[in-house]
Design brief:
The model is unreliable at 241-261 (pLDDT under 50). This protein is 42% helix and 17% strand. It has helices at residues 30-41, 54-65, 68-72, 89-101, 132-159, 189-194, 204-221, 267-280, 305-325, 330-344, and strands spanning 2-4, 21-25, 46-51, 78-83, 108-111, 163-168, 228-234, 245-252, 255-263, 289-291, 294-296. β5, α5 and β6 form a beta-alpha-beta unit. Strands 4-3-2-5-6-7-10-11 form an eight-stranded mixed sheet, with helices on both faces. It has a three-stranded mixed sheet with strand order 1-9-8, with no helix packed on it. The chain is an alpha/beta fold. It has ten helices and eleven strands.
């Protein structure tokens, strides 16, 4: 059975990032590289490539600046390469500190970096003692968001236009295990996922993406969309190799029930979907995930009283984890917490 993904519209002709500063994390992979390249073509004044491996980042920078279209359009983007290792809080904090010392505006923060769309069979632990996928896909990105949030809001006040924070999500979050196998109410969520006995490589990625979506939906409640628009985006299955499709078998209770030949999107199509979320769609997408340019909420099984309680619990645990990693952000994070509390009421 063949499955074709919805076509992706072209970006609006009037879309421009002129004068804006954009941070793109993970910009040495093919998809994120295309996003960074497109930001330069759209006229961004400064694009910061936040990468794990700096030499690869420098190669990506050279490829961007040497592209014929850059010269044809006489673009003069300032592309910087900076190290960012999501497996170390120390690296996240150092990256954020360097950005702050540049004394620049920050208009758009694109959180793409993290573990790939599969988890290693063997559990790995980060420098900070957390399970690798949990820290890479959730905790370090949350820390980076907290670190740079004041800069986003300051820029928004200065320019009179909302900042943008877009986090790469996944439709695979709907295949999480948290609904069928809820975490006991008396067990901390992060401790549960850090516990070796709870590691299952088959579902770790989708669970981590659900936790990230829950965090961003709560973060969005702490700020007005006219100050910072926060959303997540799923770009579907994007081609990363020469083949134009992949074949997948889906299982229910261990039985293969359907084989699908899924036709991949081109990298450029996925990048356009991402940029629709990060630069085209407006306040109506605040706190939601965009799939095929359509707004989606959290999976139905999480939109319950128990799910809301889990979101609040997760927010508090992540907030405390990040403040523990860098006590200097306590004031700004507490301000977000107070704003969230004021909206929800006693």
């Amino acid at each position: 059975m063949d499955l074709f993904q919805a076509p992706v519209p072209t970006l609006p002709a009037e879309l421009s990032l002129e004068g804006k500063t954009v941070i793109v994390t993970g910009a040495t992979t093919a998809f994120e590289y295309v996003i960074a390249h497109r930001c330069v073509l759209l006229g961004a004044a400064q694009v910061i490539l936040a990468v794990h491996h700096v030499p690869s980042g420098e190669k990506a920078k050279d490829l961007i600046l040497q592209h014929p279209a850059i010269n044809e359009q006489k673009l003069a983007a300032n592309v910087k390469v900076m190290e960012l290792n999501l497996g170390k809080y120390e690296s996240v904090i150092a990256f954020a500190d360097t950005v702050k010392k540049l004394n620049i505006d920050l208009n758009i923060l694109l959180l793409n970096a993290g573990s790939p769309d599969y988890a290693p069979t063997k559990r790995h632990t980060t420098f900070d003692g957390h399970e690798l996928v949990l820290q890479s896909n959730l905790l370090s990105n949350a820390l980076l968001a907290f670190e740079l949030f004041p800069l986003l809001t300051q820029t928004a006040k200065k320019t009179g236009k909302p900042g943008r924070l877009t986090w790469l999500g996944s439709f695979r979050q709907q295949w999480n295990t948290l609904v069928k196998e809820p975490i006991p109410a008396n067990e901390p969520i992060l401790e549960h996922f850090d516990d070796e006995k709870n590691y299952d490589s088959h579902v770790r990625y989708q669970n981590s993406k659900l936790l990230a979506a829950m965090f961003t939906s709560t973060l969005a409640k702490s700020v007005s969309p006219y100050e910072v628009i926060i959303n997540t985006v799923c770009v579907g299955i994007v081609q990363k190799k020469a083949e134009g499709h992949i074949y997948r078998e889906f299982e229910i209770d261990g039985d293969v029930v359907l084989g699908l030949r899924i036709h991949n999107r081109e990298l450029a199509d996925g990048a356009r979907l991402y940029l629709y979320a990060a630069a085209v769609h407006g306040p109506e997408t605040h706190g939601t995930m965009l799939v095929d340019n359509q707004r989606r909420g959290l999976p139905e099984g999480v939109r319950t009283e128990e799910g809301e309680e889990m979101k609040r619990k997760l927010w508090y645990e992540i907030m405390m984890e990040c403040v523990k990693a860098d006590g200097r952000i306590e004031e700004s994070v507490t301000s977000l917490e107070e704003s969230l509390w004021n909206q929800e009421g006693p």
